[in-house]
Amino acid sequence: MRISSRDIPLSEITLRRYEKPGTSDRRELVKKLCLSLGLLNPGDSRDVIVDIFCALMDSKKRKRWIRAEELREAILSRRKAKNLSESGCALSNIRRQLFRLRNIGMVEKSRNRYRIVEFSELPRVFDEKTFRYVLEPTLERIREHLSAVESAYSATRKQKL
Fold this sequence. Notes:
The chain has helices spanning 26-36, 48-61, 68-81, 91-103, 122-160, and strands spanning 66-67, 107-110, 113-116. By secondary structure, it is mostly helical.
């Protein structure tokens, strides 16, 4: 069965709701955030996205842009310190994960350097970028589909009567 271009989503986002944050371990907090935003799936062993986000948060504190190569070095040292495998630490995968973070509006790129958007606080970035430009348009389109289905079935019911 061929997939029609109409069946390919324009954008996609997965959101999950977890219990309130209950730990002070930074990596675990970031992991729960990545799970909540659909950047990581439950049970994934390849959780390099967590270390990428942690490294970006560290560079945000210093108000410093960071290159993918520097991110890789930071990730490798971070994972080594925690006795985690190096799977998923290839530069190509790091760039792919950065692209995903850019797609949801959390990270921006300029001259092959990356940062959390405007070095801003994460709740603000989420509200101004992710919610406004990713979630709201998606929810609006879902409402359009709901109305279209409702109209189609209302018209069918009237025709049958």
